[in-house]
Structure formats: structure tokens, C-alpha cells
Design a protein that fits this description.
The protein has one domain: Maltoporin, Chain A, CATH 2.40.170. The strands form eight sheets. The chain has a 22-stranded antiparallel β-barrel. A five-stranded mixed sheet has the order 3-9-10-7-8. A three-stranded antiparallel sheet has the order 4-5-6, with no helix packed on it. By secondary structure, it is mainly β. Helices cover 6% and strands 53% of the residues. Strand 12 and strand 13 form a beta hairpin.
């Protein structure tokens, strides 16, 4: 009842604002002639529609908007999308969250809660998304479960990059930037016809230099970029009814990995801590971090090829086929403590490759739009994480045995997914439309998990032989490189893994359009995210137990209102998510300390309000502000400790999680941007602008009043960016001087606990730079 009253008040207030604003005179509208984002044509429902006619929560940014706000990666979407958060993981895999729905896991082949696509082709795993913002026409961010239309079922939402397409005439352009740390970004494209039926577009971008992290123990820097990405598009139309689109893209990333920043040293066994380790300096400023000399390194790569075919069967029916293959490779050495010591340094390597096929038939028959189709995905992956254990304080498990020095965790997986889907959109009257979607998905994953010692000295193998003998009086010999993970009978060996699941996701919606173009909509939907098999350093085979599929039921009502001749756009929504079996990274305790495993949260919920205002009140002024409020709560206990209703949080502390907030879901997020330009002579304009991002306090662990997990607290922050420059009135060229993080705010998005310390990943400090672009 409380939420119903809140939603009713919120929508009534929104309707009142819309009504009052709509009553403004037409003269006000005459001051702003440019179109607002509501006029952007999007493909969120796999057909072209105006944003204001799509009855779901959607945000779209044009390529020009991305450039103005300096959005160079999916992580930078936090500058423009309220409710979107980015979290770096210890193994350099990005984590995306929308409206509090995300999965903090760093495995190469762990399906995300927020899916990312390039022209409707899935970038199936987060490591594949790093080069996606190259040469875009726009980006669309869809919020809420996306289980009925897109190839990957997701509970949080979807990010769809729309690449700029080949042009009918020869075009070219370039842009570049340089910042105070010496990072150079250069990007360019050429586009045009090769023949009357064939068009092409080639885009390339490189980022080089810019080390911004400073060692707290010596005169050293880290953070140089060495990144190259490219894309080739070919559009071929052999006839009026048939068209093919080919996309080949990829990246090479040899840049410095981000180093952790120390919070504090907290040894598990102070007697065995390395000399001087407890004197390591905590980070106090945004640039502060530390790492072993010569250790951080990276050689990651990705490529994708995709072919889309569209055949118009008639004036009202079209057959579409989308085929793609992609492969990502990781090979990186990562510091893991925020100190200058070679403490638990990580060697992370592996690959994930994926084949995808979608076939669909769509049609527009008067008041009815419809889609039916099927999709198939085959994934193969091999993921390895090797830990250097030479100076961890719990390296001596059994007195008298040598300390173990190495632990290597690996998981090899194969995954097959097939789905059948259908969607209907029916115009009941000129004002009222109804929508329905249904999708059946089946997923099967098999694999093998193994933890072993890479070293010929095989201390870990000897240790597990001793553990077997102490428990059952005998031991299975373990040779160097053999798996040490113990099964239920205390026998070591590789752990066979299997997970088979099916689900039915659906969506129902009603849209009602008012005379002034305002859209009021309501949706009810159910989405699923497939279960996952974790890659963990497993002492016991139970650590490989999968986290089963999660389910999210979403209820949403909203309004999209163009006002005063589109000089003002107001979007508002209220939503309630009923979450079952949310997947999170949990912790188990044993003789080796705090070790990870995947677990499910039986029940949780999210209540939220969202509003966005875009305005062009006078010629030359463009402004926008968006805000999201989230009230998240775990509504059931998580029982992973036998005989209790408790689990372990990220600090290894027992906690009854019922009543805790969902981690990595700040209660308030606010984004804003404004730019004003005016003529200064000829076709030249001056401009000034800036942006704002606010995130309220958060926590990177399960926490309650009884167990506050203060070391994992993520403090609130407000970041302001400023820019000024000159541009051509027709947009052919633009030059700006900019400052990001003007007040040098210290901020971070995650905290991690090792055996002997706490560390975090900090965001960039104040940065000054210049940017230029040219598009004749």
C-alpha cells in the first residue's frame, strides 16, 4: 500500500507538471528550433519508432551527444544515464548495473545481468564490450527485463550500440584529444559508395599514453593506454527487396591494468606477514595506488564478424537473419593488494568464443505489428586465474608442512542456448495500443573445474594429501598439476559441472497517447538470467555449485511528454521489481581463509522512481537532468551456513542478510548536462557547458545495522565537468578545452578484501585536456 500511494503521488505530480508546462505559449517554443531526444528514431523493439512512441523506459544518446560529453566507453554512460553504474572487478572484467540489477562477477564467460549489443548482435560477455563506442550513430539504453526480443535474456536491461552506417556520398571525419597526463586519443572514419549497390564505412580509433596513477612507495606511474580498435561495415543491396550488412570489428588492448589503492592492512596471521607489508601506505588522494615493480601487464584482444540479411517478402512482411561469431582473449598480470609487494599477484588468461544465429519474421499489417523468431547460441570458454601465494599470511596451513606458494583456478565450459519468441503490438484505437511478448529459452552448460599447483615443488599437492590423511586416514597421491579440489568423499580431482535450465519470459503493456503527443504507458514483465558456473579457487567441490537462474518480475508505469513545441521533454516512471534467486558472489570460510562461491538470494525487491527532463528553452541552450531513486531490500534470509539462517558477507562475517540493501545499488543517482552556444561572427560560435554526476552512499558487501561492513562502504560523491570552446554553426568542426572532475573528488565504486588487506579501485583525478573534431 505504501508503494501504491507513492507511485500514485509521483505520477499525479508528473501529470500536473506536464499539464502546466503544456499550457505555456507557443512563443516559448519558437525560441528553440532543434529537435529534442524524443524525436530520435530508435530500434528498441526491433523496428524503427520515435522514442516518444515506445512504451518502455528508454534513453538514447546521439553520436554528437556522446562526443560532447566525452563518453568513450560503456563505463562513461554513468555521465548520462541515471540508475546506471559501472564497477571494475579484480580481474579487469567490467560490471554494469541498471536500477540496482547487476552481477558482480569477473569470470570471462559469466553472462551479465545487463546485456550489450552492437546493431542487435550480442557482445555476449562484458570483456567484449570495451571497444563498442567507436563511430556511433547513437546508443540506446533499455531499462528493465529484456527477455522477449533480444538474443540474450537479461534481468537488468540492455545497451544497444548503433554504428554509424555507410553513406550514399563520400564522407570522412576525424577527432582527437590530448590531456595533461599525455594521453592521446585519435579517431577517424571514411565512408561512401564503392558501387551503385555496395557501400562501405571504415572507422579506427587509438588511445595511447596517459599514466595517471602514482605509486605511494616510490617515484613510479601507471595507467598508460595502448588501445586500438576498428570496424569495417559493408552494405550491399543487390535488389530492391534484399539487403546484406556485414560488420567486422575488434580491438587490441595492451594498456596498463588499473592498480588497486590500499585502504588498510589487516593480516589474518600477523606472525607470518611479510616484513614491511604492514607499513604499506593507504591511499589518500585520487592518484594514489601501488603495485609491484614491473608486474602489471596486459595483452587482451577481441574480434567479431557479423552478417545481417533482410529480405522483404512483401510490402508488409520481412525476413531477417543475423549471424555472428566473436572471440575474446585475455592475458594479463594484475596486482592484487594496493601495496608494492608481490602479494597474491594474479595471472589471468583464457578465452571465450561465441556463435550466434537469429532468424525472425516481422510484419506490419494495418493496426498490427508482429515478430516471430528463433535464436541459437553456442559458447566455449577456458578461464584461468593463477595466484602468487608466497607471502600471504595463511600460507602455512598444517605446521610442519612447507608453505604453499601457488594456486591455479581454472574452469572450461561449453554452453548452448536456444530460444523461440514472438511479439505483438496492436493499435486498439487511435489513442490506445496493447503489446504482448513471449519467449521460451533453454540453456545447457557443461564444464570442468579444477584448482591445482603449477610449480614442480607441488606444495599445494602435498598439503591436500595431508588434509586427506587427517580426515580419512589415507590419501590419493597428487602430482604437480593435478587437481586438488576435494569431493564429498574427500578425494581430489577435476570437478564435472552441469547446469540445464528452461524458462518462459513475457511482457504485457498498454500505451495511451494524448492529443499533445504525451504517451502514458504501463508494463508488466518477467525476465530471467541464466545460471552461472563460477571460476573460484576451490578447496571443496561444493564451491563450484552453480548459482541457478534468477527471475525478476517488473511492474512499471510511466509518462513521456513533449511540451511547448518540443522545447521541453519530460519523462517519468515508477517501477517495482520482485526478485527471486538473485545471483551474488558469496564467501565460505575454511582453513585457507575467506574463499568465494556463487550463491542465490531467495527473495529481494527494488522499488524506484525515475525522472528525466530535457530542455531547449532558448536558441543555443541545451540542458538535461535525470534522477533515479532506488529502495532495495533483501526480504529473506540467505542460509548457507548449516543450522543457521545466516551467510558470510564479503568480510567473512556471519550475517542474517534479511533487511539488507542490495550491494552496488546507490539510493540516489543524478546526472545533468548543459551547453550554451552563441554566434561570435561569420559561421563561428562560442560555447560553454558542463556536466554533473551524483551517486549517494553505497556498500560493496551485504550489510545491516548489526553487521555494518564499514570497510566496504562506498562514500557518496558529486563530480562536475566543465568545457568551453568554438565550433562551426553547421557542426563541421569543433574545438574545446575541458576539465573533468573539476574539484578532484576522491571516489571509488568497489572494495575488495584479500587475506591480509582491504583495497579499492579509484576513479580518475582532475584532468584537463583539449579536443578537436572535423566533419566536412
Amino acid at each position: 500500500m505504501h508503494y501504491f500511494r507513492t507511485i500514485s503521488l509521483f505520477l499525479a505530480t508528473s501529470a500536473s507538471i506536464v499539464s502546466m508546462a503544456s499550457a505555456q505559449t507557443a512563443a516559448q517554443a519558437d525560441r528553440a528550433t532543434d529537435s529534442l531526444p524524443g524525436d530520435i528514431v530508435v530500434t528498441a523493439q526491433k523496428r524503427e519508432q520515435s522514442m516518444n512512441s515506445v512504451g518502455l523506459s528508454l534513453q538514447a544518446l546521439s553520436g554528437a551527444d556522446l562526443q560532447k560529453r566525452r563518453i568513450d566507453s560503456a563505463a562513461d554512460l554513468v555521465k548520462a544515464v541515471p540508475g546506471f553504474t559501472f564497477t571494475p572487478s579484480p580481474y579487469a572484467t567490467p560490471v554494469y548495473t541498471l536500477r540496482g540489477v547487476g552481477l558482480y562477477d569477473s569470470g570471462l564467460a559469466v553472462a551479465p545481468s545487463v546485456s550489450v549489443y552492437m546493431d542487435e548482435v550480442p557482445l555476449a560477455y562484458p570483456i567484449m564490450t570495451l571497444g563498442g563506442t567507436l563511430d556511433l550513430e547513437r546508443v540506446e539504453v533499455l531499462k528493465g527485463p529484456q527477455g522477449t526480443l533480444f538474443g540474450q535474456s537479461s534481468t537488468g536491461g540492455a545497451v544497444n550500440y548503433i554504428a554509424a552506417k555507410p553513406t550514399s556520398t563520400f564522407r570522412y571525419g576525424a577527432n582527437g584529444s590530448l590531456n595533461q597526463f599525455g594521453q592521446v586519443d585519435l579517431e577517424g572514419f571514411v565512408s561512401g559508395p564503392i558501387s551503385p549497390t555496395l557501400g562501405a564505412r571504415l572507422a579506427v580509433k587509438t588511445q595511447q599514453g596517459g599514466a595517471w596513477q602514482k605509486s605511494t612507495s616510490r617515484d613510479d606511474k601507471l595507467g598508460d593506454a595502448r588501445f586500438l580498435t576498428g570496424r569495417l561495415l559493408l552494405d550491399w543491396a543487390p535488389s530492391d527487396t534484399l539487403k546484406f550488412s556485414f560488420n567486422a570489428n575488434g580491438f587490441i588492448d595492451k594498456g596498463d591494468p588499473l592498480a588497486p589503492s590500499l585502504i588498510k592492512v589487516a593480516p589474518t596471521n600477523p606472525a607470518l606477514i611479510a616484513p614491511g607489508f604492514d607499513q604499506s601506505k593507504p591511499a589518500r588522494r585520487p592518484r594514489d595506488a601501488d603495485w609491484p615493480e614491473g608486474y602489471p601487464d596486459r595483452d587482451n584482444s577481441f574480434y567479431q564478424v557479423a552478417l545481417r540479411g533482410d529480405l522483404n517478402l512483401s510490402d508488409s512482411a520481412k525476413l531477417t537473419s543475423i549471424t555472428s561469431y566473436q572471440k575474446a582473449k585475455a592475458d594479463e598480470q594484475l596486482p592484487f593488494s594496493g601495496t608494492p609487494f608481490p602479494y597474491q599477484n594474479i595471472l589471468h588468461f583464457g578465452f571465450v568464443k561465441s556463435f550466434n544465429q537469429e532468424l525472425r519474421l516481422s510484419g506490419d499489417s494495418g493496426p498490427l505489428n508482429w515478430i516471430v523468431g528463433a535464436s541459437y547460441e553456442h559458447v566455449k570458454s577456458d578461464d584461468h586465474i593463477r595466484y602468487d601465494q608466497r607471502i600471504v599470511s595463511n600460507r602455512v596451513i598444517i605446521p610442519g608442512l612447507p608453505a604453499y606458494q601457488d594456486a591455479h583456478a581454472s574452469i572450461a565450459q561449453k554452453n548452448e542456448t536456444y530460444a523461440f519468441f514472438g511479439n505483438l503490438d496492436y493499435r486498439l484505437t487511435d489513442r490506445l495500443s496493447a503489446r504482448a511478448g513471449l519467449r521460451y529459452t533453454h540453456n545447457k552448460t557443461t564444464g570442468v573445474g579444477c584448482t591445482f599447483d603449477d610449480l614442480p615443488s607441488n606444495e599445494l599437492g602435498f598439503l591436500f594429501e595431508a588434509i586427506q590423511a587427517s580426515i580419512k586416514g589415507s590419501a590419493v597421491p597428487i602430482a604437480p598439476g593435478d587437481c586438488v579440489t576435494l569431493d564429498d568423499n574427500v578425494n581430489p580431482g577435476p570437478v564435472p559441472l552441469r547446469l540445464s535450465e528452461g524458462n518462459v519470459s513475457w511482457r504485457l503493456g498498454l500505451d495511451y497517447k494524448l492529443d499533445n503527443g504525451t504517451l502514458v504507458y504501463a508494463t508488466v514483465s518477467r525476465g530471467f538470467k541464466q545460471g552461472i558456473l563460477p571460476n573460484v579457487a576451490a578447496v571443496q567441490s561444493a564451491q563450484y555449485d552453480p548459482a541457478v537462474r534468477e527471475r525478476l518480475d517488473a511492474y512499471e508505469v510511466g509518462v513521456k511528454a513533449p511540451i511547448a513545441g518540443r522545447a521541453l521533454q519530460v519523462n517519468a516512471s515508477a517501477f517495482y521489481y520482485d526478485y527471486k534467486d538473485k545471483q551474488i558472489r558469496g564467501t565460505v570460510l575454511n582453513a585457507f581463509g575467506k574463499l568465494e562461491r556463487e550463491i542465490n538470494v531467495p527473495k529481494s525487491r527494488v522499488f524506484g522512481l525515475e525522472a528525466e527532463v530535457q530542455m531547449r528553452p532558448i536558441r543555443g541552450l541545451n540542458a538535461s537532468v535525470g534522477a533515479t531513486y532506488l529502495d532495495t531490500k533483501i526480504t529473506s534470509s540467505i542460509s548457507t551456513i548449516p543450522g543457521t539462517s545466516e551467510t558470510y558477507n564479503s568480510d567473512g562475517v556471519q550475517i542474517d542478510a534479511k533487511g539488507a540493501r542490495i550491494p552496488f545499488a546507490p539510493k540516489y543517482t543524478v546526472v545533468g548536462d548543459a551547453e550554451y552556444d552563441w554566434a561570435i561572427g561569420g559561421d563561428t560560435q562560442a560555447l560553454v557547458g558542463g556536466g554533473l554526476v551524483y551517486h549517494s552512499a553505497d556498500n560493496g558487501s551485504l550489510a545491516t545495522k548489526a553487521v555494518p561492513a564499514t570497510e566496504f562502504r562506498i562514500k557518496p560523491y558529486t563530480v562536475i565537468d566543465l568545457r568551453a570552446g568554438l565550433q562551426a554553426a553547421d557542426g563541421r568542426w569543433r574545438g574545446t578545452v575541458w576539465v573533468s572532475n573539476v574539484f578532484n573528488v576522491l571516489r571509488w565504486n568497489t572494495v575488495f578484501r584479500t587475506i591480509d588487506d582491504y583495497f579499492r579501485y579509484q576513479d580518475r583525478p582532475r584532468t584537463v585536456g583539449v579536443s578537436i573534431s572535423y566533419r566536412p
